[in-house]
From TrEMBL:
Protein name, per record: HAD-IA family hydrolase
Coiled-coil segments on the chain, per record: none
SUPFAM superfamilies referenced in this protein's UniProt entry, alphabetically: HAD-like
Keywords, sorted A to Z: Acetylation, Hydrolase
Molecular functions (GO terms): hydrolase activity
Organism: Bradyrhizobium cytisi
Alphabetical list of NCBIfam families matching this protein: HAD-1A3-hyp, HAD-SF-IA-v3
Lineage top rank: taxon: Bacteria
InterPro entries to which the protein is assigned, alphabetical: ACAD10-like, HAD-like_sf, HAD-SF_hydro_IA, HAD-SF_ppase_IA/epoxid_hydro_N, HAD_sf, PGP-like_dom2
């Protein structure tokens, strides 16, 4: 069982993005469109692979969003990422861990990227110990949807991809896992994800 973190075990940051855009009178979805444009090599991708520092990310994101119609500073986007833990997903993870190997593949940012993140590191740490292995993009310089990151997880856990279930909230990140033979679940809500997980594992997760 392999999980993404943000948008799966936490609520989606997309709600915070939309709130930020509305408050500032920006065109809706400018942040998501900036993230999606040239998604393998844009500011976001480089930051998640720890190839640029926060100042460079801030400027690159501003330039990229300006090209799409409205300037958004990269520094302003970072605090919007936090999301709230979904307790029902954490409970499901605990039950799954009792029966199966568990892994987490997360596209994340360098540890010092967001000062305000330190307050949440304790409760995140409590969740992270539920995984047999965690792969963080900023630590290894690879990020989803690069197929190598999924291969690395499968090899580390010593599991057959055809017997794996992978959960993510982004379709683009599910595709490589599906191509390797994994069962994939696109997470839209905790309840929907848990229902699909129960069907895939045969476990009672609530």
């Amino acid at each position: 069982m392999i999980f993404d973190f943000g948008g799966v075990l936490t609520s989606s940051p997309f709600e915070a993005f939309a709130r930020y855009e509305t408050e500032r009178g920006l065109s809706l979805d400018i942040i998501r469109r900036t993230n999606a444009a040239n998604h393998l090599e844009n500011a976001w991708a480089k930051f998640e692979r720890a190839e640029v520092d926060i100042d460079t990310f801030d400027k690159l994101f501003a330039t990229e969003s300006r090209a799409l119609g409205a300037e958004v500073r990269g520094r302003d986007v970072l605090p919007l990422l936090q999301g709230d833990l979904r307790p029902e997903m954490v409970e499901a993870l605990k039950r799954i861990k009792a029966q199966f190997k568990t892994g987490c593949i997360t596209n994340n940012l360098p540890a010092n990227a967001i000062g305000s993140m330190t307050g949440r590191s304790l409760y995140v740490a409590e969740v992270m110990v539920l995984f047999d292995h965690v792969i963080e993009s900023a630590k290894i310089g690879l990020r989803k949807p690069d197929p190598r990151i999924y291969q690395l997880m499968v090899e580390t856990l010593k599991v057959d991809p055809e017997k794996c279930v992978y959960l993510d909230d982004l379709g683009v990140n599910l595709k490589p896992a599906r191509e390797m033979g994994m069962t994939t679940i696109k997470v839209a809500s905790g309840a929907q994800a848990i229902a699909e997980l129960e069907a895939a594992t045969g476990l009672k997760l609530t």
